[in-house]
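ARCHIVE CARD
Drawer: 12
Card no.: 0347
Subject: one protein chain, sequence and derived structure
Cross-reference: see card 0346
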Amino acid sequence: MTVTRTLLLAMVLLACGQEQPGVPQQLTTEALQTHIADLAADSMEGRSPSSPGGERTVAYLEREFAAAGLQPGNGESFRQEVPLVSITADPGRAQLLVHGDGGTSRLVYGADYMTWTKRVVESVTVDRAEMVFVGYGIVAPEYGWNDYEGVDARGKTVVMLVNDPGFATQDSTMFTGDAMTYYGRWTYKFEEAARQGAAAALIVHETDAASYPWAVVRGSWAGEQFDLVHSDDNMSRVPVEGWITSETAAMLFGRAGLDYETMNEEATTGEFRARPLRLSASFALRNTLRRSTSNNVIAVFPGTERADEYVLYLAHWDHLGIDTTLEGDQIYNGALDNATGTAGLLLLAEAFAAADPAPKRSVVFLAVTAEEQGLLGSAYYAADPVFPLDHTVAAINMDALNVLGPMRDITVVGLGQSDLDDYVSDAAALQGRAVRPDPDPAAGSYYRSDHFSFAKVGVPALNADGGIDHAERGEAWAREQRDRFEAERYHKPSDEVDDAWDLRGTVEDLHLLFRIGYRLATEESWPNWSPTSEFRARRDSMMAGR
């Protein structure tokens, strides 16, 4: 973009009454580096919820918000207590046996499968539950799709594929084509299996369809698993949930006289019907239970005119903690995921506290816990908000910020979902950057971070994810670096601070997000979901009763 065009756009924004603040001096690579290093230090022990390292992280955030001049967001406290229960399965006592005409196969925990239970019980056993292949495990009336049609799944072990048929076929007329729907997410598949009354639910892992390798499955579901505390102790959940490798699935299908690849292809057709595998599965799990309390951390900078209207920034402070079963490095430092976003949250808080003129609406900074355990902290806030949702203008999420350097573009995960796209476009134009959709829609990223908790309850939510066209090295290089992180560091102890990071791009993105939030906090409009968004009706209903 030329300088003249940039100035013209700024003049247009001013003419529309959108005041433009100066460049925030608080957003520097040095300040960002300091916060990231502090949050990702070994002393934070991987920032697991309800752990000593987690408590140190919460205390750190409290100190930094207070030092920035912000007020506690929850009455006189920066903390919002989040009641959790942790369930830790003993890997030495986990068992998965498969029985059939050829005898009994004992699968290897970690190598062949990962299982757990979300039920708050000390032990779970499932004895010889008939195994049935239910395709993608989807019931979607709006797509005319029902993988459970004609089968009674009660008391059975259902085996299903990850993602949805649109990804497998790359057919834009099937579901949403390459872009994953919520039906493709593992969370949905376990929810549907519970509704169907299954005794166990196993998802077949495929790296491309899941968008991460088996090592991520093993790392994410080993050790302590958290959930929110529910009145029924989660007895409505499937007794056993889990994953199996594609190699394990191929072996099981072979034992059943079926070809795994052929079954995959059949599952993508509307004529597919569930297939009994003529096998049964027995599971055993022994758990250690721990009830605890973690904390969301909330700070607020009150608005000067409409203090009862809120623009909300959020980032998750937690990561995966320590895995003592690993050899060598056992700490999941979570430097990129999500010390970067949490550090950005702190710097934006400082920037708003120093903004001149000060914002008219209040700006809330929410650091949530237990994102890695299923968006638990943000889900808890959305269900029990400190600030009313019908007074919340928008939520802006930061999860794993760009550390590759300046980009010519900015990615909006879920582009087309809401009016917030226009805010991104205007802010990006002032930086001479293009706005692009998610380059990997099959990964289902829209359903994998904390903005989704707000979207589900109707609050317009933005998840901007850096860019993929490096200003100096090009798109191919940037994609290669992103893919390498996914393969080698994502949800692994190797996600540590890297001297090769270029935080210039991170700061540029924070400038963009600051400008969006400042505009929202200054003007009087209320962005909404697009007319075709599945979240529009919830917001309209909410605001009609305001």
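Annotation on reverse: The chain has a mean pLDDT of 93. Residues 335-353 form the longest helix (19 residues).
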